[in-house]
């Protein structure tokens, strides 16, 4: 509607670039914002600053080599990415990996999830302005990284899975350290909540901000905590169990509000569930081999294979189209990050710049995962 | 010693020139002292932040890293002053001086002890408020002149923030002025010598006034949780994005000196200035009164640092909600209650 | 009424948060996480499996275990390993046998995936726990793993 | 009512095929070499079939979880992986076009919002143009990039390392 009072003040919409070098974009993501004062009119993500064409590289690499490329996608859930590729190869070759492998994969996968959520919690706090959370979160994440380093040899890009099992057995200290970590971390999650969740400023910054309706969540293809914050059942571990997830009891973390606070709660709840999964498995790691021998050159039978796993960010899909040679004909990663990023415009439009930062933090963007 | 310099100066030059020289000397000494004090506040902030965050803090330069901030300042002095070429040159260069000068002017009236007060005027509180709110002009100039969108958003935020919170700072101090009956800082402290600290004397309204003053004061200095002006996760560096080297250092130092000033006002008005608690050191003549003042100020500063390293940042509209819907009405009611308390001479 | 309970709850939650950070402040001396890195080189031990860089262990008589089968070269996803080999005559049997001239390792291209070490049939290459790999010149990241004059240990077959 | 309830559950591939095949007789179904039911749709019927797949109350394929562009050598194609979040059955929709110069098909981004970003990705790598797409441009690559990198006939001697 035309304003009734005629004004000589000319107002203009403002275009600003948030990123590619910006503290809130967690990497090299560029957000093109159209703003009117503090209010966001439109958000357009500009991607590709670290696109490495992993899918093209997969077409020239052998299946063993593809595994380590996935470390570099969502580097915070690298183990789960590796697992996805191994599972799809095993599915195609009809290999049944030993129980021990499944259980160890599940434990390390859940530890990865906790580590990822830890980092998210720290960064979330930092994005809304509480810098101290970052250090508390990293203190706990460091313990998980130490467990990984002792067993896998690397802290982040572990490449511990190979098609057919694990590269080598777990370290003798693994069980002990993991139990120590669980005991330690159980005392820390309540502290996380005391520091941030209850805080009235944090509540104001997150409650009712960036509300995603369940219908939109599904239509935008959101998955993981973003969709579960809106009450969509989408946990692949429940729907299509893989590895040892059918052996354990856990609850799918669900919240129905769909706002930033709901997504926060989902992740905190998920950390508790992950702890419970690890606790159920850690004392019952079956004895046995840690790998099934595969041929040095793996050739998948002709056909199409699809494997879905639940990373810390949501559903990762691996689509393989094989023509029977040693390289895949087409290898497609359905990364959770790209689909989750799709919701940002509808969530942020109409809110303030500060809200956009909180929304981006709760979507938990990892740019290499979006760009691949 | 001061006496000897005084006499010597008057002996070698005419009276007028000597008096001016003396003023310049005192001012130089004062400013140098506060530049260094400001640097140590930065050091303190870094150490305190580190201890809140399970870190060690600066510990390489000098014992316990004491000279770290000195080294940083030297580095900043020696750095090239860069800027983009579409700035408004005059305003851009003026802004940091505006900020630092207004911060330093306020120091003139602070009563460090009974003797050590450079300028004891009868409208001390009023003067402090007026001067400390002038710094925002520098921030606005800096943000505008930088020709940077982030800087402009930061500057505009600063404008609305300071204008709003100025009211609360003023009204909360006014509540206490009702109790003292004077705006002169030395007088305010004298009142507390007999009646005890004002925060204890004025009872509940005084406590509320103190809380409001702390919140509004933190907002006045643009510190977290009200650091919207330079909210780094939203605006990068906010209004000083385009500043580098010493010009940046002025903004940085001004923030810490402002924090010192706000803490000093709180100490003078609520905690009895340089008076010792319950007069425990009143009989010890050699005990420096200034020490009590500094201890109290550091206590308040620590509280402000504690806020900063614990709380998330408010959003800009919530900042205004807090001021106009909560602090201001409470403040007005508080003044009325205080007036009634004094009128009826009640002790609540 | 909710106006006042909001204020009360707000202040309470803020104080809760402050108690958490305050608690850490008091225990700051004990809990510091900072590692004083260059000063703690003596005590800083990496885990046995830590992937620092690929090395080829040699024994006292300058013999290694690499037969030059090139399996590591094939397994490597990045072309990090290059083997320059030769045919030499085995002194004992008199047969022609493959032997390595240079086992070249480009540390700058290595992603520490461990596939080469998995692929090695004779355990000729292993991980070193070296964690200080930065150099001033990129060319010094290209390393020749077998020492000059070394030869393969007797009895190692692929 | 009872009948409705019985029908609204996870369906087997045969049941899905039965429903979908009644919409058009140009569809080809296969389950060979795949864990899902594959349905190949002609280019001009893609949008119609897709919107029916979503709106049909017994199928309700409301979750598009993967969009894959693929170069079959002769043909360019797109593969849509669909799932129903209520019934948890899945289907794979394949569409092919033999026009390599100017491949065009309809956008499904009005049916599933997620397709917007994924179709941009497909356009970026395969050069398939989507009609009615709100914002079709290069997603990852620079706007001035020449060629479609994930096509099999793409050559870039500078940047591609072929083993």
Structural account:
The complex is a heterotetramer of chains A (about 375), B (about 350), C (about 160) and D (about 160). Chain A is α+β, with helices and mostly antiparallel strands and about 375 residues long. Chain A has helices at about 55-60, 65-70, 80-95, 100-125, 130-150, 175-195, 200-205, 215-220, 225-230, 235-240, 260-280, 335-340, 345-350, 355-365, 365-370; strands spanning about 15-20, 30-35, 40-45, 160, 165, 305-310, 315-320, 330-335. In chain A, about 45% of the residues lie in helices and about 10% in strands. In chain A, a hairpin with a 2-residue loop joins strand 2 and strand 3 (about 40-45). In chain A, helix 5 runs antiparallel to helix 6. The radius of gyration of chain A is 22 Å and the shape is globular. Chain B is mainly α. Chain B contains 14 helices and no strands. In chain B, helix 2 packs across helix 3 (about 70-80), helix 4 runs parallel beside helix 12 (about 245-270) and helix 6 (about 135-145) packs antiparallel against helix 7. The longest helix of chain B is centred in the N-terminal third of the chain and has 38 residues, at about 15-50. Chain B starts with a helix and ends with a helix. The model of chain B has no long low-confidence stretch (mean pLDDT about 80). Chain C has two domains: about 1-35; about 55-150, Alpha-Beta Plaits (2-Layer Sandwich), CATH 3.30.70.3270. The model of chain C has no long low-confidence stretch (mean pLDDT about 80). Chain C is an alpha+beta fold and about 160 residues long. In chain C, the strands form three sheets. In chain C, strands 3-4-6 form a three-stranded antiparallel sheet, with no helix packed on it. In chain C, strands 1-5 form a two-stranded antiparallel ribbon. In chain C, strands 2-7 form a two-stranded parallel sheet. In chain C, a hairpin with a 6-residue loop joins strand 3 (about 80-90) and strand 4. Chain C contains four helices and seven strands, in the order ααββαββαβββ. Chains in contact: A-B, A-C, A-D, B-C. The interface of B and C includes residues 51, 52, 54, 310 and 326 of B.
